[in-house]
Amino acid sequence: MSIEIEKSVLEKACREMIETILFCLPNAFKGTIYRIGKPPELVAERITSGIIDDGREKISWGLPAKSGYNTPGKPWVDYRDKPGRPLEAMSWCVEKQKSWTSEDPRDDPRNLRFQVEGIAEDFHHMEPVLVRKSDLNSDTHPSFQYPRDYKGNIIWKDSEHVVVAVIKMHFHPFTIKIGSHETRVIKKLSRSLGTELLSYKLRQDSMRAMQQLAKDRLNACNMLADSLRNAITKSGLIFSLVKQEIGHLRGQWEQVLLEDRKEANMKVEAVRDLNDMVTAMGDGYEALREDLVAVQNRFLGLSLPPEKAEKWVVMQIEERWKELLNKYPQDDHKRSMIWQTIDRLKKSLYFGQDPDSIANYDKIPEELKREWVNLIYRNTDHFNPSALERLIEILGNPVLTIPSREKSRKTLTRLRALAETMSQLERNTNFLLRQVLNGDDNGVVSKILSNITTNSRQKGIF
Fold first, then answer.
1. Of 1, 154, 223, 295, whose CB is crowded by the most CB atoms within 10 A?
2. Residue 127 phi/psi, 5° resolution?
3. CATH number of the domain where residue 25 is located
């Protein structure tokens, strides 16, 4: 019950995943992926490591000269928790099937490198790659032995998953936090890697079956369908990262306008006033009030387009205020102040598009300014390659006075390349599915599969 695929295929998949994470997370500089072997041995073997250069253009690959996790790897009994032995994050990820974040190595009880070598620069996040037991056909192994902890307790007994790999990403000092957006991105990509490794395993099994059953077309179709699902999953994540970066640009633009006008942030002030109003209500319904304050504070960390942000305010903030005021009535004056402040919050969401604010800002040519505002505030429900291309071009113009202009341009350029590659992969896979289902390829399928492999290697992305 493990992922058994060719070493070269496994290394290729791991390199792709590390490359994706390093290009998407600017504060990450190194990534390593370990394969977790079949139980009960659970040998943790380092597959590949990649370090990105200071210019974030090139990744160097290789393994450290000396490590207990290099081939042939480290068995479970040698890295699990045990009295008298330093605790390892690897043990936690494998046994608990949960992530581990070292936001400060000096206070990290599972930072093995700090405990053994006294090196405190190892700021990292480790994420287990999970696959459902049912997807690995564990039901065909009724006598399968689960691993045990040092006390003899069986692990994974009540879990629906097994750990097939562990992703470890290293970050620049004090730039990684427990539960931060970086950890969420890695968690989402770990699911994609699990699906991809499972897809490779299924493809390998299918190839063996096709050799035995005269290249059974149904198995080939299932293999291609898995590849298509991987493409769609990654494309969705890439689009989310594009929207997140554009949201960051909106925030930068609004801050530039505020500084130019020497005004305070109306959205921040409105949320602060609403929090003060909650606090001033006195005792009673503490749970509702604490939840409301938490939601209002969380809103400040979101980067939604104005229309979506207003809907979020209505659904998440207004509704909670209605519930609280229904259970904890206030006088007419206080109710009026609350709704006026919420209206002020909604109005603040459109500050970056306000004609007067834009017209008074004269540090950017008028035509460029109008196009810039249109691009960063337009509806982003669907991926628009031409709009993204134009936004990248504008970000390359030094007249645009945005602090993160060059950084955002590089990030969006890399995301565009990833999106184009995934789009091409999806089109090819759809075509292959039709060819296989129709049963009339005349060698076309083999040629396209060969072209996909060749193009992926040339682009250096997939």
1. 223
2. -130, 125
3. 3.30.450
Tell me if the bond preceding 86 is cis, omega within 30° of 0: no
**Helix-strand-coil percent breakdown of the chain, rounded to 5?**
60, 10, 30
pLDDT band at 195 (very low <50, low <70, confident <90, very high): confident
Work out the angle at residue 228's Cα, subtended by the Cα atoms of residues 141 and 414, and round it to the nearest 5 degrees: 120
Both tokens of 205, joined, read 């099994």
Q: Is residue 259 part of a domain?
A: no
Of the candidates 383, 254, 364, the one whose C-alpha atom is nearest the C-alpha of residue 309 is 254
- pLDDT band (50, 70, 90) for residue 205: low
As a whole number of angstroms, the distance between CA 454 and CA 462 comes to: 10
List, for residues 8-65, the tens digit of each pLDDT value. Answer: 888 888 898 899 999 989 999 999 999 998 888 999 999 999 999 999 989 999 877 6
Residue range of the domain that includes 107: 7-176
CA distance 238 to 393: 19
pTM score, whole prediction: 0.48
In a domain, 165, yes or no: yes
Q: What is the DSSP string of 88-147?
A: -HHHHHHHH---EEES-GGG-TT-HHHHHH------EEEEEEEEETGGGTGGG-TTPPPP
- Collapsing DSSP to helix, strand or coil, 162 comes out as strand
Separation between Cα atoms, residue 248 and residue 243, nearest integer Å:
9
Compute the half-sphere exposure of residue 319: CA atoms within 13 Å on the CB side of its CA: 8
Instruction: Establish if 163 belongs to a structural domain.
Output: yes
**Taking a C-beta distance cutoff of 8 angstroms, is the pair 133, 161 a contact?**
yes
What pLDDT digit, counting tens, does each position of 126-143 carry?
999 998 888 776 544 555
Q: Does 131 map to a domain?
A: yes
| pLDDT given at position 1 | 46
Determine the Cα–Cα distance for residues 429 and 448; give it in Å rounded to an integer: 9
Number of domains within the chain: 1
